[in-house]
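Re-run with default settings, no changes from the original entry. Doing this only to confirm the output is reproducible before filing.
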Amino acid sequence: MYLEDFINQILSIPKFDKKIDSAFLERLNISKKLLEGTSVRDRSSRSPFFLNDLGVRFTTSPREFVEWNTKKINVKISSYDKLVSDMLQAEIGLLPYIMDACILLTGNFDAVFDIVSRRKSEILKHGTYNALIYSGTVCASKGSKDSYLYFSKAIQRAGDINHVITAYHRLIITKLKRFHDYEGAQELLYTLISKEIPRSKDKDLYMALFDNMLGLAVVMEPNSFSLVMAKTLLVNATDRINKYVSTCSSIKGKSQAERYKGQVAINLVQLEIQKHDYKLAYHIAINNLEHVRIYSKGYVAEACSILAYTQYLLKNYHDALMTSKEALNEHADIGNFDGVKASREMLISCYIKLGMKEEAKAEAQLILDKSFKKENIGSRK
């Protein structure tokens, strides 16, 4: 298997672990287990489930991160044809593990999309729940409505109600974000709240998720009351999460709820920014950063990024600069190129506002270099 050879080639390099980023080392070790058909559930934010993404987004981050690391050790990434060959030959039960490893290690969404298209009938007929979710996600990220088929089949094949709700979520978000199918999303939302969520013992948590999705739908079809309705839904989502956490006895459940709470807070910040209430947006953002530092450290990077933006809107350019440096370092630590690039763009804006043109040019060059180099927070005043 070419992916396995790629991993072993790196692991055989003397002192390779001293030459690559720790997040990339983590991805290598997890991918090695995945290729053996071993599920690795408790993954950190350094090794995300790109094919189980809540926002069904396409991202270049895993590709840029592996290229940044393989340059350091002079190793070439497995080619498109080799990756396709691995997945074509894989048994249907092993396929989702190889798909997961392929994106985690190479970021080659095109290769996975190719396989999902070629093995479509087989995956729909015999694929596991994860294979269907992964296939739906990659199709959504590539703008293919085959995502509808995969997510719908995942709903049918789900082993428990929580997996049913998760598949509904992916399908609804795909209809809203990727294809702006508001009528189709509305029908699914109605089914979800009427028939599915009431069957879950975690209904408060999933109602929070529902409120968050409905808030997105409301904003995407604007009218005179959209912002008020969206804020009401997001506040309700926060209240539901707090209620769930106060009664939940599961550590995993509480952890998941606290992560949701951070995402809802970021949506609230974006809503207040849309209303031009930058001070309130800032206060929500800074409270959220304190929250995620305690409960969901993997989301500190995103929380810092949104806080920096509110500081910039309030013309607190020095604070925005320092927060953006922290955000950049956090994004770099988890191998998130999209976040690193966005943070550098914010740094450039701050430097320009502060009259620091040379520093702005230096950051622009780092963007062109697709660099994951971290910022020295104490070095610039």
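The two ends are 51 Å apart (CA to CA). The longest helix spans residues 251-274.
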